[in-house]
Amino acid sequence: MAKKQEDARSDAPGETSDKSNLSPNGPSSDPSARETSTQSLSVDTTPSSSTAALSSSSAKKFSARLQDIRTSASKVQPLTNAQKRGFYFKAEMLWQAVQDGLPADDPDHDSLLAAIDSFESEMLSLNPVRLASSFLPRILQRVDMLVRMVTCCVFFCLMGVLTFLPMITIAPILDSLLKLVGWPHQYLTNALFQKAVGRGFLYLAGVFYTEEGKAKGGYRTPLVVLFQHGSNLDGFLFLDSFPQFFKSIGKDDIYLMPYVGWLAYVIATLPIDRRHRNEAIKQLGRATRACASGTAVALSPEGTRSKTGQLMRFKKGPFYVQAESRASIAPVVIQGTFELWPPKYFFTCPGQVRMKYLPPIDPDSLPAKVGKNKEELSRFVRRQMFDAIEDLTVEASSGGKGRNPSAAPLTWFQRALNVVSMCLFWWVVRIVWVLVTSVSDARGVSRAALAGAFLSYTITVTASLYILYCKRPASL
Question: Where along the chain is composition biased (Low complexity) (predicted)?
Fold first, then answer.
């Protein structure tokens, strides 16, 4: 632990990161490149004291380091996702070094941070699964997404009517009986619902995962689980993977969505209003009380989905919950979900992802400077997660255990379920067609327009069935 903490603070001005093995080309040591970067990224000021001179010297070193990283990244274009993760780590360590090494009122402070942010957003966003470049295959792949999305919706609706509603009705009685025999509160209702929602969605969507490091017998509570959040898939993965009942935190907007908000309730999601700070603090208090009472609480330290797929900077909320409940921290790293379901896709591509559970961190076992300080603890946990990301990347690149995050075709059983779902969808549309034609006859609406809409739907279903049986996976 002590060595990790020393490594996390080793990025002093002028030093290089120890993560250069993530990219084939390390930072450039060309003196001319350093001189150019100093002239282009630093602000020309005349120091009036020794402190100002030291600050200016540090700013020049930081500028040179940023230019070295940018130059190294430019030399290996196009960058793979593994290389982008390596350069992103270096850029983030430099960002933290600027925060620590330059005072906030330094004229170069804000410009350096802005330059690092610009570099990360322009060059280091991860590459998602690419859809076909030709028009017709691209349209068919979009139709495939729609078919799998409809399949999941039909599954959840049927499961809700046949399972969730009856279980919720008798849940109080079951909970009372289970508590008498020593079972955890709401185990049979919420915990099983979590597994059903997570596993059902992943299977029908065609997403599989491998995991390592998870405690098979569950975790000791109180526990705060911090997971990397790069996609809508992360929540479903965690529902299926985590070995015990937990409560999670999500934005309150999902409770306004029909049926989805009800599902969020039955799987024990606590809403949080991110638009109003005071309300968010009150709602975090609910998570703190749940954690202190012995329930694991899962949330993303980034606060929201990553727009680039990289591990974003952490918010303070999760560490407030940890400090108030004196809970242990269990970090979880997820790779591949952003590639399969980035923000611009309306549904996920089928494929394989990887999860890595890190050993729980007991803040009381850390040095007081780290364990008692939210900022230092946040930095320590983030460095641990970066190390885990590196391990997964190196294993995948060297052919070690696990697979690269990649797209994969659906199994035959999944295809059959999708076909059944589309048949159910067809049956519903047929009923709607009968009702609409009855109304149109009564009001004199042309059947030609209705027939055109019906023909369009028929073509869509035919194309979707074609793409379902196409075995060629998309490429990263």
Answer: 48-57
pLDDT per position as a tens digit, 430-465: 666 666 666 656 555 566 666 666 666 555 555 554
Terminal CA-to-CA distance of the chain, rounded, Å?
36
pLDDT at 357: 94
- In the chain, the amino acid numbered 58 is S
Mean pLDDT of 300-313: 89
Residue 36 to residues 15, 64, 74, 92, 336, Cα–Cα distance (Å): 18, 8, 15, 22, 37
What is the C-alpha to C-alpha distance for residues 338 and 353, in angstroms, rounded to an integer? 9
Beta-bridged to residue 298, according to DSSP, are 225, 248
Parts of the chain belonging to CATH 3.40.1130.10: 135-407
Please, what's the b/e burial string for 277-287 (b: 16 or more CB within 10 A of its CB; e: otherwise)?
eeebeebbebb
The first and second tokens of residue 106, run together, are: 């330094």
Q: 233-280: per-residue pLDDT in tens?
A: 998 998 889 888 888 888 877 777 766 777 777 777 888 887 777 888
